[in-house]
Amino acid sequence: MDRFHGGNVEFPWTASAEAEDTQPVLARHALSPHWRRLVSAQVAADSQTQSASTPADVATNVENEAELKDDASSPRDDVQLQHRAAAIDESTRIALETFETRRALGQAFRSIGSVIAERGFQRVCVTNELVLTAEEQRVCALLRSAIALREKYLYLPKVPEFARPAPSYRACDMSIHVPPPYDPFRGPEVGPSSHMFSFRDGIMEVSLPAGDATRGHASCMAPGTYADYVRDLNTITGVMNDPDSRSFCYKRLQLLTLRFQMHMLLNDEAERLEQMTVPHRDFYNVRKVDTHIHHSSCMNQKHLLRFIKKKLKTEPNTPVLERDGRILTLAGVFESLGMTAYDLSVDTLDVHADKRTVQRFDRFNNKYSPLGESRLREVFLKTDNRIEGRYLAEITREVLDDLSENKYAHIEPRMSIYGKKRCEWDLLARWFTKHRIYSDHARWLIQIPRLFGAYYQAGLLDSFQEMLDNIFLPLFEVTQDPATHPELHTVLQQVVGFDTVDDESVPQPRVDLLTLPPPPQWRSAAVMPYAYFTFYIYANLWVLNAFREQRGLNQFRFRPHAGEAWRSRSPRSDFIASTRHQSWY
């Protein structure tokens, strides 16, 4: 066995397979010979001579010697005394060796960081990489133009987030670890403003009255018209379909992949050792954020099953549903389904998304209904029902409490605003405030289903403009005067973004986007093109963010789903319009 010396300290690291077999404890902590040489050299330069034993070991030895003397004074057999003394000596020797090994390894791992910093990672350089042909230079110009188009439509606050002064923290009984810079149930004190807003061709415009003294900086308008958006979208499509662009991007992506694989081959051990030197951090106590959680499915299937059984046991006579003019209790709902608490199991609930839901949006939606019954979804997983979403609030608080105990896990649940009624925002805000839904570990996104065709066919909406009114008018009203929707004003502090979602496998109509009518004139149940719907959500959200920034309120990101269905055309629109999109490539 090799021994590396650092002062008077020996480092018993194994150097051969035979030695590792004879020293299994040390072999588990052994480094490669190359790293042993580097680390031992660093430790030898920094280490100082230390005692071979600790005060605890000395005290243990004194006690053992005293015990031996007591044993020797007693009338015992000499052979037993010798065996006991030998066992104590052996245990003392093992304890000393273990202490020396741990001290040496600890000193070595503390030196790994400086060794890696001095040595650096190995790199592979490609010669003449910057020598481009005329064809490649043309492709690079196309890619730069595409990036410039994205920057044109990207909403950037006038004052970047990192440059804003940190707000003072408020005392809040809802916070556990780090209090937020706001009270979750008391909005910022902002008075009414004299801004005026109205829709023009489906896009909100905000301005001040003609005689207002602050008129110079108050106008909020989208960065472009729908016609400009379609032309820029066609430019992006042309870049994507260019043969030279496809070849260049494919080769570039392959090169980056191979470079990463080469880096892992050369520096895998160095990165592993560097990771070991980071104190108090591993996979389990590093911050993790799940950005794709639907609120109605934020609990696991076992948690939901346990909750349903508990409610059947404790609240069987609670009126929860109205069907055909009759009020049904919770027990009555299950009786109408021919089920009892004993019949329920994880398999019968059937709410787990498995391989059968891949590329099947219809099956995926059915997973939100326990037992495949919409009435159970309405009772347990809806905020707007006869019990005002009390069951969903209770199970949501249980999930948030679990996150608080975990401490290092965070989520961004999505809640739906459909745009069918103007009061949807107020109902959602009332649910938040009544049940005091808040956690330091959760921020919320609003998802807007692209279901105008179904709503129009059912007679719920008259035009696409009415849907935009239901979605955005309450947001502009509460931004102008928080007193109009006080509960919504407080809840919007927890909202960080907007999302759009629907079945992307439905074939998109191949039409000239410039020929489509504006939202007030869109009165059809036909499939609405994804690019058309995305633009009007994006444009109104852009104006809303500019308005809220002027009012000193938080802004929202636009993060739509994209690419859930293979060969979808949605990423082309989201490349321009989204702040950051949820991609499923």
TrEMBL record:
Q: Which Gene3D superfamilies match?
A: Metal-dependent hydrolases
Which GO biological process annotations does it have?
AMP metabolic process; IMP salvage
Q: Which UniProt keywords apply?
A: Membrane, Transmembrane, Transmembrane helix
Q: What GO molecular function annotations does the UniProt record carry, in alphabetical order?
A: AMP deaminase activity
The UniProt entry, under InterPro entries, shows: AMPD, Metal_Hydrolase
Q: Which GO terms describe its cellular component?
A: cytosol
Q: Which residues cross the membrane?
A: 527-547
Which Pfam families does the UniProt entry name for this protein? AMP_deaminase (PF19326)
Q: Which family does it belong to?
A: Belongs to the metallo-dependent hydrolases superfamily. Adenosine and AMP deaminases family.
Q: What is this protein called?
A: Adenosine monophosphate deaminase
Q: Which organism is it from?
A: Cyanidiococcus yangmingshanensis
The organism's lineage is: Eukaryota, Rhodophyta, Bangiophyceae, Cyanidiales, Cyanidiaceae
